Recover the amino acids of this structure.
């Protein structure tokens, strides 16, 4: 696992800016976004190396170029040259090189292909440096410079046009009618009034329609007044991953404004990690005020329904292990909720060696799963999870994020691993007592 992975520098470009304009756009973004917290973080590194031991890309490849703090090198240099207390001196003495177009192109792989913004490095850093958040800041500069992996840029353009990376809003009623017919469950669409606005991740309108149908089954079972709505249905916010903050704000607003329009008090998020990060934890920032309604993840919803007795489930009676999605657990705080749901399902939980807040990322977060050229890296990272799952000897393998599921399913297929990655939501729906 420690052999250095040979990869050639990979980068894509968008737009017609020349090199000078790209560097200028990136520098202006770096400088504009270095606030007090970021400055403190950039000043604090004591080079202890602990973050390298925490990052799945560095661990799986053994390649020092994937050391987390190195990913912030361009941001740090911009800070030292333009913002820091000794900036004029640093510039005059050439103590920090200004980022060049070659640097920006080279760092595209480090910021997008080999970082899932999982925050495991942040957790172990003795100085409390939030590397994951600063990678996100750096991605914004890359987006401004038109230097985003093309797969993600394509999704960005689609989401700007459709409000979703995969589905035009006007197609939603037909898709829901198909899912409804296939799974035999009513899925309301575009109701003028409802208490809960239910949202989806792209996979639930494609490969994972059972998850959407199972959410509908549970909502109908408890008699909720709910709907999906073509004005705001895709919670997987690609702006959050790409560093396209304007799109992130627009997609966030579309969910909240649609919910308010139909009188909903709750926005229910799908089993999707970055949907939770974007819509639950960053939404108020983009909404410019305290959120006027509740935004909850599917795992919280299931946990509350089970605790209140609104739903009951038949025990599974098998052992299971659980993959903690980073944005839901480490970054989102829902470590206990998933375990309460598993307990209610009567499974014997055998924890992974690294689990809960310290769990390893699946390797596909932060848009990496959609970035085709990162596939060889994902494959290396998958082996960490596979080894840990196999070591538990558990009969079932469960998670609560559809994107993690896709990443793990892809990894399993390539590695000829026969363990199925199951959805916590689908397990609850399958065991529901009428
Ligand atoms: S763990 Fe923190 S202090 Fe140590 S090298 Fe990484 S960023 Fe620097
Ligand atoms: S956020 Fe995760 S993927 Fe990114 S550098 Fe840190 S540990 Fe590695």
């Amino acid at each position: 696992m420690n052999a250095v992975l040979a990869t050639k520098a990979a980068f894509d470009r968008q737009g017609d800016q020349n090199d000078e304009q790209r560097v200028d756009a990136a520098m202006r973004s770096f400088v504009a976004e270095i606030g007090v917290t970021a400055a403190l973080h950039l000043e604090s590194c004591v080079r202890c190396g602990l973050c390298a031991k925490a990052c799945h890309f560095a661990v799986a490849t053994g390649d020092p170029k994937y050391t987390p703090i190195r990913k912030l090198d361009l941001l740090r240099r911009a800070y030292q040259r333009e913002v820091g207390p000794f900036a004029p001196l640093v510039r005059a003495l050439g103590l920090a090189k200004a980022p060049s177009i070659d640097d920006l192109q080279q760092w595209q792989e480090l910021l997008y292909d080999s970082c899932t913004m999982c925050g495991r490095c942040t957790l172990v850093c003795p100085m409390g440096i939030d590397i994951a958040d600063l990678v996100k800041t750096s991605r914004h500069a890359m987006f401004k410079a038109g230097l985003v992996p093309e797969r993600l840029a394509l999704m960005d353009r689609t989401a700007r046009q459709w409000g979703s990376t995969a589905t035009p809003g006007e197609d939603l009623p037909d898709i829901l009618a198909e899912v409804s017919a296939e799974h035999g469950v009513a899925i309301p669409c575009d109701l003028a009034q409802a208490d809960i606005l239910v949202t989806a991740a792209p996979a639930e309108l494609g490969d994972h329609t059972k998850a959407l149908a199972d959410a509908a089954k549970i909502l109908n079972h408890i008699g909720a007044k709910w709907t999906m709505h073509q004005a705001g249905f895709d919670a997987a916010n690609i702006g959050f991953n790409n560093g396209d903050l304007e799109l992130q704000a627009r997609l966030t607003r579309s969910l909240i404004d649609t919910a308010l329009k139909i009188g909903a008090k709750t926005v229910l998020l799908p089993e999707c990690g970055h949907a939770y990060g974007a819509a639950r934890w960053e939404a108020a920032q983009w909404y410019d005020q305290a959120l006027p309604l509740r935004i909850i993840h599917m795992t919280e919803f299931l946990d509350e329904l089970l605790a209140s007795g609104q739903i009951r489930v038949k025990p599974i009676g098998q052992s299971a292990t659980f993959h903690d999605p980073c944005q839901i657990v480490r970054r989102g705080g829902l470590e206990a909720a998933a375990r309460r749901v598993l307990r209610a399902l009567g499974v014997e939980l055998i924890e992974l060696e690294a689990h809960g807040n310290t769990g390893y990322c699946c390797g596909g977060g932060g848009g990496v799963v959609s970035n085709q050229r990162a596939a060889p890296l994902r494959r290396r990272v998958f082996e960490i999870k596979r080894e840990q799952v196999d070591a538990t000897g558990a009969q079932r393998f469960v998670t609560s994020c559809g994107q993690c599921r896709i990443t793990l399913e892809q990894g399993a297929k390539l590695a000829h691993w026969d363990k199925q990655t199951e959805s916590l939501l689908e397990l609850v729906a399958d065991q529901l007592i009428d």
The CA atoms of residues 20 and 248 lie 27 Å apart. Confidence is low (pLDDT under 50) at residues 1-7.
